Each structure stands twice: as C-alpha cells, then as structure tokens.
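Thread: quick sanity check before group meeting

JM: Hey all, I'm pulling together slides for Thursday and realized we never actually wrote out the predicted structure for the chain we discussed last week. Dropping the sequence here so it's in one place. If anyone has concerns about the input, flag it before I start.
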Amino acid sequence: MNNIYVIKTDDTNNISIGQTTGDIADYVKRTYRKSKNKILWKEDNFKGSDHDIHNILEKHYKRSLGYAGRETFDFTLMSENEALKKIKSVIVHIETGEPLDWNRTENFAPRKEQRDAIDKAATYFKTKGNEFLWNCKMRFGKTFSTYKLIEKQDYKNVLIITYKPVVKDSWKTDLQSHIDFQGWRFVEKESDYKADERNICFASCQRLLVGEKTEITINDIVLYLKENVSWIFSREWDLLVADEVHYGTRSELGQGLKDNLQYNKLLELSGTPYKILENGEYSEENSYSWNYNDEQRAKDNWDDAQGENPY
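JM (edit): ok, ran it. Output follows.
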C-alpha cells in the first residue's frame, strides 16, 4: 500500500502525482524543497501506485512536462479544480474498476436565478418543510439546477419520476456531460445501484405502475411492482423529484404512486403548474417562480461587463 499525493509545485498549473510510504506532508516538504508546494489531494493506503495513475493520464494527456520526472503533468487548458477531478476519477477507477469518463466537457455555473432557486429550496428543506415547487419556464434549467441542489444538500439517493418519459434524455445528458457530476450514477435498474455512491434513479410513472400495458388493473400493478420495480418502493429516498408535475401526478393513480414511495424531501418541477397553484398546494414560502417576463427583465438589465449575455 502507498500513500498518494497530488500537489502543485509552482504558480503554473503543473500538477505532480507521487507516492511515499511515510508521512505525505513531510515527504513533500523534503522532496520539493525549491518549490511552492500546495497539497491538493492525499490518500493513505492507495491500492495501486503513482505509476498506475501516470500511465492512464499519459494515455489521455500528451502534455507531460517531465521536469520532475514522469509524475508531473501540464493542466494549463483547465482549472485546478477540473484537473483534480480528472485525477481523482483515475484514482477511483484504479481502486474500484469504475469506467473512466473523459467526455465531460460542460463546466458552466448556475445563473443568478438558478442559484436563488437552489438556495431557497435548500433553506426551506433545512429549516421549515419537506415539499417545494419550482414553477419555472421552459429552458430555465430545472434539470441542471436540481443536480446542483442535490450537490449542495449532499443527497446520495435521489429518485426522479415523471409521466413524461421523453425527459429522461435531458436528465441523463446533463448528468453525464458536466464535470461537476463526475462519479454520479444514472440508475434505471437495480443492478446499476451502488449503495455507497450518489445514485440518480430515473423511472417513468407508467413504468412504475404498469410497465408496457395500456389497460390498468390492480392485479397488473401489484404483479408488475413485485416483479420489476419493488426495489424502488423498498428504499427510502433522500429526495423525490417529480418532473413535469402538471402531467398526471394529481390523478388517483399518480397520487397513489407517490403515497407508496418512501422519501424525505419532495421537489416538484413544472413550467405550467396552474391548477396546482390554484388549489393552494404551494405558497410563496415553499415555491420559486421564474417566468418569461422575469427572463426578459434579466436580459435587458444584463451588465455586458460581466461577459456574454446568457439570456
């Protein structure tokens, strides 16, 4: 077993990955005496070696500098945080056998209104209640914002349900393309679920209720649940996300489905939850709204000194 370290040895974005059998801080201080050392990551009792990490990085990054040996790499084309995430993904790959994902290219941050939605929901969940609604127009970024809320709250087990199965592609794409969600699992069947990792489980309400059948009976539902998706009903979810809630979730079957799921928090998403709001299910306190007029005001008031107008 080796003690692995990841350090920056100067003011550039050159990062070194090495190993020692002793104390990491002491070893780095003695070995890199002429450099400004900043330890970005360290791990005791690593199952592999620093050479295992180097070999994988060299296969994907051809910019090895070599001035401190094979262990130094040039990550000038990405931020320190991005580089560290890449290195940590290699470490996880070596230790667990999980496949590497080198195709994550998105690295944008939430816009102000997205941060506001995330913060308001997080504060409400922490201090006041368990159910929250995002009433936000199409293309607000509800999927990405939900993932950032999950990250902020450190939820490990999340279930996303919807009566509109076509939205699965956007949930899966956002999860698998942004660097912030490296290592998160998109789960559609029980065998993909890993108890010690962050699981984003997706299921359409139709699948949970009847599978491929078009005519529903109670016997169909009971049999299908036992044979196919009982694992979803047997787990307690940190967060239940109901997407496109204006589609069918308030029907008798939809409500019965939700009542039989075990969850701690509920986040409902919609661009047009008019009947839900008319029924008084949510108030200003436990909802966040963003409509077309809000977006136009944000567009008109954008300060070009901040960069390209995102609206």
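AS: nice. The longest helix spans residues 80-96. Residues 63-68 have pLDDT under 50 and may be disordered.
JM: adding both to the slides.
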